[in-house]
Amino acid sequence: MRDVMRRSLGRSLRELPDEDRLMAAWSVACGSALAGHAKVMYLDVENVLHVRVDGVEWMQQFLAMRSALANDLGRIAGVKLKAIHFEKRRD
Q: Which residues of the chain, if any, have pLDDT below 50?
């Protein structure tokens, strides 16, 4: 079912700019529970996605999943990501 949702979302996002497609794909790629602990900030000119994470414990989780997230986001959004840069949210 999740694969069907990913393909469907990807088709519906085709007309949006790359950054908007990645933001829309974020919760599908991460899963809603994990996605709620980070916020997509922007896509830079080198196709590096910048994401702000809630704290150190969540940072570790996201870093462990970085490669899989980049692949899933790229596939869902139809955007070739060079990397994902995670930064800790400032309190």
A: 1
